[in-house]
Amino acid sequence: MKGISDAIKKARKIVIKIGSNVLSDDNGTVNKDILHNIAEQVVCLMEMGKQVVIVSSGAGICGVGAINKWSRRGDVNYKQALCAIGQVELMMAYKEYFGDYNIHVGQILLTGEDFSDASRTLHIRNALFTLVDEGVVPIINENDSVCVDEINSIGDNDTLSALTANLWSADALIILSDIDGIFDKDPKTHKDAQLIAEINDIDETMGRIDTDGKSSFGTGGVVCKIEAARTVNNYGIPMALLNGKKKNIVLDVLSGNGQGTLFIK
After folding, report:
1. Mean pLDDT, consecutive 10-residue segments, the chain of 265 residues?
2. Could you give phi then psi for residue 222, rounded to 5 degrees?
């Protein structure tokens, strides 16, 4: 995967989005081995002189794992409560795993309004630049405990990661999902699905692939990932879609191994 490898090598500022479908086990609780491995890979990137911002899903599943109730309640108030509990658990995990390398983390919770207000975007940029300049890894998530309406809600963390990459003027966006990249059809249901290694024309690709379906724990789906790519590509930022469940996937594609899909204009 020379294209993805070159994009990551050239990038100094990288946003990495980690989906809830990557962090969750089959029963919906957090897979700590995967989370720890992602932290290890981020540390390796930092040792190469790169700055990394993480956009992380997983507050809801962390909340379920912490108190083991309310998971089947459909009421939005319980979902808000689970996310409030889960944010603490999620950050504790990041703090522990990055702490193994003497690296601090900082939490930033955002809403849709934050990206439409000039004063707020300036403050977000200042916070990000200060944290990364001091070697701290920012962990960004949507403020799910308050984002319950169309005004506040960003919608999904694929979109949030793209908005963050543009705001921070990142050099690359990496989205870690539970698939190897973009296929011409759903690889989970079609054995003959073909991986598309590089996409230069999103509209042309959207017209010829099957984008139906979502993972059981994720909310973004393939369409949201493609639209996230469109958002950053419009700012000249390449995006790589990789399978975050595979150990060392970022380092593997960086070395020219592994597979994924690169979106680049």
Report:
1. 91 96 77 94 98 92 77 75 87 94 96 91 96 97 70 74 97 95 83 92 83 47 90 97 97 94 95
2. -65, -40
Euclidean distance between CA atoms 199 and 96, whole angstroms:
37
Whole-angstrom Cα distance, residue 156 to residue 209? 22
Torsion, Cα 62 17 51 96, to 10 degrees, reads 10
Q: Kind of pairing, strands 172-177 and 239-243?
A: parallel
Residue 230 and residue 58: Cα distance in Å, rounded?
Answer: 24
Number of Cβ within 10 Å of residue 132's Cβ equals 19
Compute the distance between CA of residue 175 and CA of residue 188 in angstroms, rounded to an integer: 19
Contacts of 234 (CB under 8 A, 6+ apart): none
Full-model pTM:
0.91
Amino acid at 141: N
Cβ–Cβ under 8 Å, residues 47 and 90: no
Residue 38: partners with Cβ closer than 8 Å, 6 or more residues away: 16, 18, 22, 176, 244, 250
